[in-house]
Inverse folding.
């Protein structure tokens, strides 16, 4: 029995699967540690096969040295794209960190092996909520769609212009901090005003020991107003998804 093999197709799919694998390992929600590595590998290979009609048309078979170099380049491209997406969605986790810090929850800090996050309650809660929203709303499909369109901009083995991704990373970091402050900002202002009010009360009536009431008061304010921040997370995740897709498509 003679089974013909299309080597060009196999090489192209292998290169695409390397880019997909590097992306899936780093980018949320696929990077969640509770997802087995075998499932991530199967997902990456399935995506590579799905985009094969787009990438195999103009692909030319490479020699051994060229193929190994192309594998390394695809690994770097997929890692860079995944890191850009990770930067965008780190804004939600950073907002939770800010709330934990100003609300006094940092004393209950712990390590979550599933998300690889070392943070307190709001940090982990916001991160898990963002992952759940990405999966339940289908936003991850937009991220995958943006990833597949990168093959039109960055052909297999084409590599990256390092200046442009570096600029996008700087922009992504600044947007991450800005988004974190915008998400947690109103609650941080309220907590700051509570601290200022307790300080003034201590100056007026030192015998009351107002700062002894500060910790339970800040916990109550954080739990009460934190629900309002949580209610805004669906819109936040939707905007972050658009930003992530824009960063992916902006890589050259």
């Amino acid at each position: 029995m003679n089974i013909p093999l299309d080597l060009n197709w196999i090489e192209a799919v292998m290169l695409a699967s390397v880019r997909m694998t590097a992306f899936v390992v780093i980018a949320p929600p696929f990077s969640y540690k509770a997802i087995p590595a075998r499932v991530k590998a199967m997902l990456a290979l399935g995506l590579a096969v799905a985009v094969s009609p787009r990438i195999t048309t103009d692909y030319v078979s490479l020699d051994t040295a060229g193929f190994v170099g192309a594998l390394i380049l695809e690994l770097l491209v997929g890692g860079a794209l995944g890191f850009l997406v990770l930067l965008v969605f780190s804004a939600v986790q950073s907002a939770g960190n800010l709330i934990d810090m100003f609300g006094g929850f940092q004393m209950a800090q712990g390590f979550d092996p599933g998300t690889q996050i070392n943070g307190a309650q709001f940090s982990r809660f916001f991160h898990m909520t963002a992952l759940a929203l990405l999966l339940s709303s289908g936003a991850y499909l937009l991220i995958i769609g943006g990833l597949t369109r990168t093959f039109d901009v960055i052909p297999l083995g084409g590599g990256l212009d390092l200046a442009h991704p570096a600029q996008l990373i700087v922009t992504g970091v600044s947007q991450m901090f800005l988004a974190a402050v915008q998400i947690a900002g109103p609650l941080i202002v309220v907590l700051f005003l509570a601290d200022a009010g307790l300080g003034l009360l201590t100056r007026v009536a030192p015998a009351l020991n107002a700062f002894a009431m500060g910790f339970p008061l800040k916990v109550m304010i954080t739990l009460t107003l934190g629900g309002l921040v949580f209610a805004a997370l669906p819109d936040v995740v939707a905007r972050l998804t658009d930003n992530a897709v824009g960063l992916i498509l902006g890589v050259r």
Summary: The chain has one domain: 7-249.
